[in-house]
Amino acid sequence: MKNEWWKNAVIYQVYPKSFYDTNADGIGDLPGIDAKLDYLKELGIDAIWISPCYLSPQIDNGYDIADYRKIDPMFGNNDDMIKLIHDAHQRGIKIIMDMVANHTSDKSAWFEESRRSKDNYFSDFYIWKDPKIDGSEPNNWGSNFGGSAWTYDETRKQYYLHYYGKQQPDLNWENPKVRQAIYDVMRYWKAHGVDGWRMDVVTSISKNQKFPDNENPHHLKYVVGNQDNGPRMHEFIHEMNQEVLKPFEMMSVGEAPSSKSKDARLLVDPKREELNMVFTFEHMHVDRKPGDVNGRWAIQPMDLVQLKKTLANWQDNLEGHGWNALYFENHDRARTPSRWGNDQEYRYESATAFATVLHGLKGTPFVYQGEEIGMTNPKFELSDYEDIELKTNYQKLVEQEQTISATDFLKAARKISRDNARTPMQWDDSDNGGFTKGKPWFKMNPNYLELNVVADAQSTKSVFRYYQSLIKLRHDNHILESGSFKLLLPEDKNIFVYLRELNGEKWLVIANLSDVEQRVELLKDYADYKEILGNYATDSDGLVLRPYESKILKKL
Ligand code: GLC
Ligand code: CA
């Protein structure tokens, strides 16, 4: 029997920089994660995915790795990591590390060597191209962080490719030595007990070797074209599976930014031996104006019908063909109550309602640090933000191309920017929310005085306790893991409702995702269902769902 522990698991993501600081340097660290293991055990999670904590110049908060085998001193050292793995295992918690294999930092020894000459061992570790006759970039590809995806290197007199920041050169996966070097790193951490991997932008590792220009639909000089899912992507991922994932029984969840559910099948169908799960981006785009030149900064109100359609499509299309990874929040996403719910009057209700509809689905739910207490977006000023993506996009869209005004950009940033999730964890109401005794590396959300772990525990409306219940339900009821899924009322603009079914057992998961009361006639058909979890303490008229009211009902 294959050990598919992750199918019945809930995984908690830690963004180490912002989790808990033990040495008062203002930066969260590995001993800080260790210190909070009992907290996580109490929540009930099965595994922790730790965002990159390797040696890094921190241009992109660790997603720019200089040495895959070394923990960055800001987080501790390798022994701290080994101890953390050990201490987590003692509590029955697994550890998932983050593998950023599409690119490294430009401060990596591999890149330092590579740029030195065209004929050393590392020369072909990256993607180098000669300038065009006129000295310009090899093609018009744009970086996700704004500007060209090519940067000229004076030493090598060539351009190198980077899908992200210019300090994040892309590795050349065509080179078998690169692939082996990555697999070696994965074996190294496996030898220290790591249980699996979250694979950063893994769908970008294969590049079209013709390096064709992107068709440019806009007036913009650079566009990010469809650079994902390149021609050898499946071959490379399958090789990684055979070399490391399968022999060492390591769980894998890949980040798959532009994959649709039909592409995902090819990545996660167990028969193909590639990945266990992928993170889709599709359901996170329901508040973005399609086709707008300003991309993620062109926000619109969330379209619930679309959200349901997308999630249901992934449920349906992966049925029998693979496993879903379920999430609303991570270190690249804003806080759900602020983004799609109501982070004022109905903070508890909207946090728990979105959690209910997510955790009721078939797949493995991921909880991002702070989500379990209903943390919210800070409403920062532009100068408070730190994120490289936000800054480079601001320069490009507001300052250079002027396709969006500074005011609209800030409005969008407060709603969807990645920094919304990166403010330090709010543990209590002491200075800096108990996150650090020093000066936090990033501004705290000032609401930590009222919104924190201790206050949540003392409240009658505890988001944490609700998450505990959801996690326990998943562990105790096979129907959540294996039951079929059927979306009901697909066109309803306010209600998210679906049915799970297993061997005659039937569960109804329902939420009102609006701030007004809704009467749901459909509930008449479910009069013989009994509530097993709900986010309101008092009963209402059976057919009415109050603002952000959510329930899980079971057929008697
Ligand atoms: C992924 C990460 C993100 C990072 C990017 C480049 O999308 O989640 O944080 O900036 O890859 O590594
Ligand atoms: Ca620290």
Automatic annotation (TrEMBL):
Keywords: Glycosidase, Hydrolase. GO terms for molecular function: alpha-amylase activity. Residues 13-422 form the Glycosyl hydrolase family 13 catalytic domain. It comes from the Bacteria. InterPro entries: GH, GH13_cat_dom, Glyco_hydro_b, O16G_dom_2, SusG-like_C. SUPFAM superfamilies: (Trans)glycosidases, Glycosyl hydrolase domain. Belongs to the glycosyl hydrolase 13 family. PANTHER family: ALPHA-AMYLASE FAMILY MEMBER, OLIGO-1,6-GLUCOSIDASE 1. This is Oligo-1,6-glucosidase (Sucrase-isomaltase). The lineage of its organism: Bacteria, Bacillati, Bacillota, Bacilli, Lactobacillales.
